[in-house]
Amino acid sequence: MARTRPNLCAMLRYSLKRLLSLFISLAIASLVIFVVIEVAPGDPASFMLGLNAQPETVAALRAELGLDVPKWQRYLSWVGGMASGDFGMSYTYRTPVTEMIAARLWVSLPLALYALTLSTLIAFPAGIFAASRRGQAGDIGVMGATQLGIAIPNFWFAMMLVLVFAINLRWFSAGGFAGWDKGLWAGLHSLTLPAISLALPQAAILARVMRSALLDVLGEDYMRTARAKGLSARQTLWRHGLRNALIPVLTIIGLQFSFLLAGGIIIEQVFYLPGLGRLVFQSISARDLIVVESVVMLLVFAVIVVNFAVDLAYAAVDPRLRSRT
Amino acid sequence: MKRNLIIGAALSAIVVLAAAMSFVWTPFDHAALNIPAKLQTPGATHLLGTDHFGRDILSMVMVGARTSIAVALVAVSIGMGLGVPLGLWAAARKGSLLDELIMRGNDLIFAFPAIVIAILITAVFGAGAVNAIIAIGIFNVPVFARITRGAALSLWEREFIMAARVAGKSAMRISAEHILPNVMNLLIVQGTIQFSLGILAEAGLSYVGLGAQPPTPSWGRMLADAQTLVSIAPHMALIPGCAIIVTVLGLNLLGDGLRDYLDPRLRVARV
Amino acid sequence: MTLLDIQTLSLAIHGFPVLQDVSLSVTKGEIVAITGESGSGKSMTAMAVMGLLPKGARTTGRIMLGDRDLLATSERAMCGIRGNDIGMVFQEPMTALNPVQTIGAQVAETILIHDRTTAAKAEDQARDMLARVGLPTDRFPLSRYPHELSGGQRQRVVIAMAIARHPRLLIADEPTTALDVTTQAQILDLLRDLARDFDMGLLMITHDLAVVADMADRIVVMQNGGIVEQAPTGALLTGMQHPYTRMLFAASSHRVNLPPAPAPEPLLEVSHVSRDYRLPRSRVFGAPGTFRAVDDVSFTLQRGERLGLVGESGCGKSTLTRAILGLEPVQEGSITLGGDPVFSGTRPNLAVRRRMQVVFQDPFGSFNPRHRVERLITEPFHLLTDPPRKSARRDAIAEALRAVGLSPDDAHKYIHEFSGGQRQRIAIARALIIRPDLIVLDEAVSALDVSVRAQILDLLADLCREYDLTYLFISHDLSVVRSVTDRVLVMRDGKIVEDGPTETVFSAPRHPYTKTLIDAVPQLPDLAALRRSDTHA
C-alpha cells in the first residue's frame, strides 16, 4: 500500500498559523475576563477587612494584594504571572492560587478525560452500527435511545445513579473523592459514576453526529467508485467512509471536551467532588475574585487549546487542509 | 416520518399549556408551606406529592415550566436576534476583514461555555434568573451566526442570487429578500434545538445556584432541594427530572420532525 | 465472441418502471455506445450490469457475462467480479476519488482486493498502471493526493483503477462530459487504445452523438427506458430507421438561421481590462502572490451583433463575464456600454446595468424556489426608476412570457412546475423584460438535452429577428457557438488569442490554440454525404 507521506513543510506552516491564532484568542479572552471582573463593584480589600476597618489597614492590604497600581499594569502582571504559572494570591486564604487550582485540577481534568473516553467508546460503535443498518430496527432503536439520552439532564441522571448504584446497591460511594494517593483504581472508582453521568448525554449526541456524518459520506461518488472496484458495502464503509466521516466528528469531540470540563462543575456538586467547580462556588460566595478569574481563565484556556489540537487533528485526517494555508 | 412531528408537538404543547395554565390556576399555591403534609408521595390530594416543606409538587412543576420556557425563549431570541444578522452580514462580505472579525469573535465566544459566562456574571453582579438568560443567550449567538453564515454562503453561490445582483439589488436587500427566507427553515429547526438546550442549561444553572433564585420556582432548584432527600423521597427528584426530559424530548422530536417536514437535507448543528 | 449479453432486461425502482426490455450485447474488443437524452435509462443499464442498483430495484431478464447471469449472482460473488472482470469509469472525476487517500493507495487497492499479493507488488503494479494511463511516476508519484491533480489527471487515475486487473469489460459512464474538449480528446484516445491493447469490451454511455459516432463500433439509441434502435455505427448513421434517432441527430447538428446583423455601431467597449486575484500566501511570512485571471483584454461589441466567447475552464471567461456585468471591479482598463462605464468608482453603475441582462447556465439554480414566475421575471424592474405598475406590469409580464413561447397564465406558477427547457425560457423572459441593449448568455444552453437545446437556440434566432438583440454568448461548446454567433473571441490563460468572424475562425483558424481546440471537438460526420456514398457504392 502506498504510504501516506504528509508534506511536513505544509503541515508546519499550517500549525504555525493555527498557533498564532491560538495566542491571539488567549490574549483577547484574558482581556475580556479581566475587564469583566474589574467592573465588579466593591473593593476586595475593604470587603475582606469588614466595614469597620481603618483606611490605613485597607490601603496596606491593597498594596499587599497589588491593587494599588494602574489597571493596565495589573492586567500585564496577571497575564505575565499566569504565563509563568503564578496566578497570584487568594484574597481569602492568602495562599497561592496556583496551589489551590493545581490540587482541584487533579480531580476535574481526569474526570473530563474519563468522560470523554467513555463517550467516544460508546458513541463510535453506536453511530457506526446505526449507519450501517440505516432504516432497520437496529438503527431505529439506537436513534430512539440517543433521543432520550440527549433529553436527560446530566446532573439529574447523576442523582439517579447515586440512588441506584450508591444508595441501593452500594457498589459505589455516594460522593467524595478517594484521592489519587490511594492508588489509581480507588481514584478511578470514585470518578466512575460522575464520568458516566457526564458521558452518556454527550455520547448520545456524538453517536448521532457519527451516524449522520457516515450517511453523508455514503452518498459520495468515491464510495460508489470503491464499490465498483469490488469492495463489499462493509469494506467500503470501513476503508473509505470512516476516515472521511471523522472530519465532522472531530469538531464535535473538540467541542465536547469543553462541555465535559464545564459540565463537570455541575456534576462535582452532585458528588461533592473537590474539583474546580467546588472551588469556584466557594470563591464566589467569599468574593475571592482572583480565584474566580483564574479558574475561568483556565477553563477558557483549556477550550482554546483543545480547539487548537482539533485543528491539527483535522490536518492529519484531511490532506487538503495541509496544502491550503 | 410525521410521527416525530406529532409526538414532539404534542409533548411541547402539554408543557406550554401547563405553564400557561399556571397563570390562572394551580392545584395549590405553589409557595404555600404546609409542614404537616411534608414529603407526601403522589396521592389523591397532592397528585404528584409534596416536598420537604409540604409544598404541592404539581403546582411547583407547573410554575417552574414558566421559568424554564421564559429563560429559554429569551435566550434563543437573543441568539437569533444577534446571530442571524451577523451571519448574514458575514456571508454577504465573505472573505473580508469584517467576515474574519465576526467569525473569530464567534470562535472566541465558543471558548466560554454558558456555565463559565454565568459564573463570571454571578461573581460580578450576584445571582439571578437574568444571569442564566444572558449566559445562555450569549452562547447562542455564535451558534446561530455560524449556521446562518454557512447556509447563506452556499446560497450566495447560486445563480438566482447572481440574477438578483444583476438586477442591481444591494447585498442587504438580497440578504433580506432571497437569503433569509431560504435559510428560515434551517433557523426554525435550529431554534427548537437551541430552545431545548436552553431548558437543559437553565435547569443546570439553577441547580448550582447560578440561575433562578428562591422564591422563583424552577425545575433546577427543585432538583437541588431534592438531592439530600433522594434516598427518602425519590419522587422529589423524579418528577422535576421527568418534566425536563419530557420538555426537551418533545422539543427535539419537534425539531427533527420539522426538519423532515420542511426539508430533509437541512444541516443542523448539535452542540 | 459475445462477452456481455443483456437479454430483455426490465427494471423498476419502487414500482416505477425505469427500463423495459433492454437487449444488447458487447463482444470482445468491441466498443458499444449507448446514447440518449436524460431519463433514457442509459446510466441505469450500466449500474444494472455492475449490480449497483439503488434500493428498491426489481429486475427481470438476464445479464450474461460469459456464461454467468449477473442478475442471479450473489452480492458476495459480485464483489469478486466488480473491478476484476468489469471495470467502471464515472462521469465526475472531481468527486470520484477518495480525497483522504493517495492515488497510489487507491489504485493498489483494486489489485489487493482481488489478488492475494504483497503490498509492495501491488504498489509496483499500480505504478505501472498509472504510467500506462499517462501518469508516469517521476511526475506523478504514488503519494499524490487527488486534490493535487487536475480533472483530466483524476479521470486517468479512475481509469487506472478500473483497468488495474485487466477486466474483460470496461464500462464508461459519460467519462468525458465534465472535461474540457482538449482533455476529452485525450481521454477518448486513451480509452480507445486501452480497449484495443487489453482486448476489452468497452460499453460507453454518452449523450454526445459526435463522440458516439467517432468512437463506437456499434450504437444503441435509448429513449424513455427502452432501446429504439441499435446497429453498427456506419449502418445506423446512414440508415436511421427510427424517427427519434433522426430527430436526435438532426438536433445535435442543428444550425439556426440568424437574421443579418444591422449596421455596426459600438455598444460594449472593453479596453485593456485586467483582473487579478490574490493567491494564498506560499510562505508563512511571504507576500501573497496574485493570479491574473484576465490579462489585457480588449474588444468591441457592435449593436445588433451576436458575439461568441469560447475557451476552456480556467481561461478567464467567467471572470470577464462578471466584470462586464459590473459584479466585480477590474484592476486595469475600462468597460463601457454606450460610452458609460459599467463600474463607476467602487460601485456598479445602475444606469448602465439596466441596459444589460444575463441568462445563466443552471436552469435549476437560477431561480428563487419560493417566488412565483411573475415575481421572478420582474426582478430586473428593480433597476428602473419608474417601473411599470398594475396593468402595465401585467402586460409586460404577459409579453415577455409570450415572446419566449410560454403562456401568460404561467406567471402564477412556481418554478418547480417547469422543465429545464421551460426554465431557460423563463430566464430569457427575465432578461428581456426590461428590453436591455445587451444580453449576456453565460453557458445558457450547456445544461440542456440536445433536442431542447435546439429549440432554445431557435428561440434566440427568433428573438433576434423580433427585438434586434445584441448578445454575448459565452460557452465551452464550440459547435453551439458556431451556430448562433456572427463573430467569435477565443480566450486562453486570460488573453484573447483570436478574434474574427465565426465562419472564418472555424474554417481557417489563425492561432495554433484555436486550431487545437477545433481539432479536439469530435465531429459528427456529414450524414448527407455518408448516405450519398452509401447509395453509390
TrEMBL record, chain B:
GO cellular component terms, semicolon-separated: plasma membrane
Listed transmembrane segments: 69-89, 110-139, 232-255
Entry-linked InterPro entries: BP-dependent_transpt_permease, MetI-like, MetI-like_sf
Organism this protein belongs to: Sulfitobacter sabulilitoris
Endpoints of the signal sequence: none
GO biological process: transmembrane transport
Family: Belongs to the binding-protein-dependent transport system permease family.
UniProt membrane topology term: Multi-pass membrane protein
CDD domains registered for this protein in UniProt: TM_PBP2
Domain ABC transmembrane type-1: 65-255
Upper lineage: Bacteria, Pseudomonadati, Pseudomonadota, Alphaproteobacteria, Rhodobacterales
Top-level taxon of the source organism: Bacteria
Keywords, sorted A to Z: Cell membrane, Membrane, Transmembrane, Transmembrane helix, Transport
Name of protein: ABC transporter permease
Stored Gene3D superfamilies: MetI-like
Subcellular location: Cell membrane
From TrEMBL, chain C:
Location in the cell: Cell inner membrane
InterPro entries, per database record: AAA+_ATPase, ABC_transp_ATP-bind, ABC_transporter-like_ATP-bd, ABC_transporter-like_CS, Oligopep_ABC_C, P-loop_NTPase
Biological process annotations from GO: peptide transport; transmembrane transport
GO cellular component, one term: plasma membrane
Topology in the lipid bilayer: Peripheral membrane protein
Alphabetically ordered keywords of this record: ATP-binding, Nucleotide-binding, Transport
Keyword Magnesium listed: no
GO molecular function: ATP binding; ATP hydrolysis activity
Tagged with keyword Disulfide bond: no
Principal cellular location given in the protein's record: membrane
PROSITE patterns, per the entry: ABC_TRANSPORTER_1, ABC_TRANSPORTER_2
Tree of life domain: Bacteria
Database matches in CDD domains: ABC_NikE_OppD_transporters
Domain spans labelled ABC transporter: 4-249, 268-518
Family: Belongs to the ABC transporter superfamily.
Protein name: ABC transporter ATP-binding protein
